[in-house]
């Protein structure tokens, strides 16, 4: 996830790299089904698995910051040597008008959104993802 200043810088770099009337295509998580994201806490012991090849304890939390339109998933991994590592995954979702404003402010035009491009298998696919196509002014 990019903070707003980083997002604006990236859009500026993309705009600068495109030729006049160049096309920019990307996707975002939209706000269609944000209620599917549940805040929760889980604990699990694994003999081995995703995080480590040896035994570990995983303490997982998920948070929804609605005002910021952000989900955060946190995984605290504790191994047999009591070494603790924390992993945080931040995901920003957008409303259509957020994207239109970002792109317009960055010098893009002819902004089109496309939903239901991907199969609908979970919160990270299907009608929860919007693809955008826009043109450099």
Structure characterization notes:
It is a single chain. This protein has 137 residues and is α+β, with helices and mostly antiparallel strands. It has 2 domains: 1-31 and 95-137, Vaccinia Virus protein VP39 (Rossmann fold); 37-92, N-terminal domain of TfIIb. Helices cover 18% and strands 45% of the residues. It has helices spanning 4-17, 96-105, and strands spanning 23-30, 41-46, 56-65, 70-79, 84-94, 108-115, 129-136. A 7-stranded mixed beta sheet has the order 2-3-4-5-1-7-6, covered by helices on one side. The radius of gyration is 19 Å and the shape is elongated. The two termini are 26 Å apart. The model has no long low-confidence stretch (mean pLDDT 94).
Q: In short, what is this structure?
A:
18% of the residues lie in helices and 45% in strands. By secondary structure, the chain is of the alpha+beta class.
